[in-house]
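Supplementary material to the annual report.
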Amino acid sequence: MSLLEFRDVTVDYASAEGPIPAVRGVTLLVERGEVLGIAGESGCGKSTLAATVLRLLPENAAIGGEMLLDDVDVLTMKWGKLRSVRWAEAAIVFQGALHALNPVQSIGDQIAEPIRLHKTAKDVDARVAQLLMQVGLPASRAKSYPHQLSGGQRQRVMIAMALACSPDLIVADEPTTALDVMVLAQVLDLLTGLVRDLGMGMVLISHDLGVLGTTCDRIAVMYAGQVVETGAALEIFDHPKHPYTKALAGAFPRVGDPAARYAPVGLPGDPPYPGDIPAGCAFHPRCPIAVDECTSASVALVDGVRCIRVGA
Amino acid sequence: MSRVATQRRKAAFGRFWTTYRHDRAGMAGLIILVFFVLVAILAPILIPDDALDVTKADGERFDGPSLAYPLGTDDSGRSLILLLAYGTRISLTVGIAATLVAMIIGTAVGIMAGHFRGPGSHVLVGATDWFLVIPFLPLAIVLATVLGPSTLNLIIVIGITSWAGTARLIRAQTLSIEERPYIERSKALGAGNWHQMTRHVLPNVLPLVLANTTLTVAIVILSETTLSFLGLGDPLAPSWGALLDRAFSSGAVSRGAWWFVLPPGICVVLVVLAFTLVGRALERILDPRGATA
Amino acid sequence: MSLLQDAAVGEPDPIRAPRVSGSVLRTVGGKVLRAFITLAFVVVFNFFLFRLLPGDPIGLYTRGRNQDAEQLAELRRALDKPILEQFLTYVRNPFDPGIDSTRFSRPVWEMIGERVWPTLLLLGTAIVLASIIGIWIGIRAGWKPGSRFDKTSTGTTLTLYSMPEFWLGMMLLIVFSVGAFGIPGLFPVGGIVTPGVDTSTPLGWLNVLWHMVLPCTTLTLIYLADYSLVMRASLIDERKQEYLALARAKGLRDVMVRQKHAVPNALLPTITLIFLSLGFVVTGAITVETVFSWPGLGLLTYEALRGPDIPLLQATFLLFSIAVIVANLLAELLYAIIDPRVRS
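Predicted assembly:
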């Protein structure tokens, strides 16, 4: 039994012009002790997919398919059950931006909040101190306010917070964007070490293939709401098969390089607006090896690759 | 202005109007305003001057609504509905005039305070802050007492006490506009202070000024009503505030003559609400990110 | 579980050392100084405005009132002194500059002393009630913008905000005091107490309370419109913040997210704005006290206006200005205390 399983998950946002598909049928597995990376540019749907894990999407989002956490479908859970599952079974590490934390509450209180809510520890203060130590912050920092911490420290607070109720699964959404290189390396080491030590599963989301290549066991590459390639991390990084993955990997992304965020070097154009996805293979307008067939039939995921031009 | 510029501005206005039309609150406000403006314009044409003349009033004093006097009579027997119509002219005129005074002073001070550095700008900012702190009504009362009761003085007093809010807003906008590169380039090209302020800053500041003006009119009309109620306006002009003053001083309240008190107030509420709705709609359209907050 | 403590090595501790108390004093001192300068300008303005008119200043002081020869002589003596001397006398004690109230022929500070408490009672009650109700409405409306509650309450508060407060007072008087539209008039028509009733007994207090109902209701309605609009706008802005999504992800119910996270943050600017709107509060007080003949500073201002009683007008203007300046100062200092971002 997998820890997390996406089964043909779709997400459509309601809008004045009709439903806009942000996620178009994603099927993925995450096992315990495993780190799955999800790669892609802004707008490919990876963050939306992550939000479905705890049903954190806004009200105008219609979710389809199934999302099984320990074999229970999160998408059809009752609210009360969902709220008890949130954080206690799966937690999210958000980007540690200044406003991701409540500016007028001490970080100790914010870490303690889910502990108190889910009643997962008797001595809350001791648990908070333990969590802070686990992420390499002195316990005395519990009284500090978010604006008194650096970006790297705030990111660690986010991680400590996510671990607070000892969840089985962690979803880390771009945890390293906006961090400088040294801090980024420390944070990644911290995350992966904790996952291994505590036997959790982790989904790591990033636009930076370099980061994913070094920390994940497997990687799924997303484009325009679909998975276009999956495989072992090093395989994807060293021998990408899908033309899009090739462009991503070939860009030789330097960690922290802002250019990698917008378009792979050498690929013309921009990713399609979700309300206006090309027919057939969504990538064909920018694909260097596209042929006529690519513009009509939709392509299935075969052997981990969604491309008709790639041999078995 | 070149043809291209004129066409572009017409197209921009067309787009603006299409958006505005869909704002229900804004349209409601606009319709109410149009109604009152029409009343103000048509009043001297359709209503004989005699309606204002106390000596020619032949209604019963403090009479309730009837066919002949749809809104009843005042303490001298004049028809209230006619008085109200005339009052529309005064309230709207004073409102708009005083707002113009306030906007001109406020915009000028705001742009200058934002554009210039140095002691002059400090003085302007200090004056703006001072006028912002001092409570409106006590200051207006003191000024009006010194100047004497007349419509012109009322306009001046309200203008003087209302410009500071606009000035602060415009100054903030000027500061942010002047950080843009094209201002630096214009300076490098030799643009003088006057040219920069009027040709670059002012056009960019105008949309905000428009929204702010409309909201200011709302406040100004309330101020005028209050000052007239206190007896500081022209005693002969039947502005809505003055009507309420008459009602109060002549004992309409203790007689229960609600027709004397209710209508002028409702007119004020409607007009002020209308300007507020229009102003808020303008803000939503012209400044969705809330720079005016 | 501490194998990654070494990850903490190498990162400099960026917590700023707590500010030395000297600089806290400097900031507070700066604000107080600015308040004093503002006040100084008020005093100067107050004095010179009335001396700016051409002609004999005595005309302004005696406009419309008949004064006996002795009073006139005294007035002339005071006004004939050199301007600088008059100004210094004024500055020394603005509330007792040697010229009595021309309408009441009593020292100005005496009149003010009598009228302060009724105003404080009325305004204080109205402000407290309006804050509680207004903030509650603002929170409910701002948390779910576009909901039926929001549309109704915002429409109502906007209408209240567009209303002249004295008109509302007059209408309340007509309906609830005189009786109209089928409603009996149960409340007194004005004043603070029925003549002859002893205000030091509990029954006397009830009598005062009975007189206070209508004016207080009027003011409360007007003030709460302002406060609720401010709170609503503040909460609408706060809703967009990311930390609320985090709170939801932790499993908090919507109500708790609102109460424990959004509202405390949104309250900060609201409270400051409530303090800053004291000027608006004062304006309402003057006209409402007039309508209800409530013997406070507002009514005093109106009576001074009717004269015009210049010394009294100057004194009330000064007093109101002081109150507003102090309120502004308190607002700034309060914000510095309750916002941890500023505090450190």
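Chain A has a mean pLDDT of 83.
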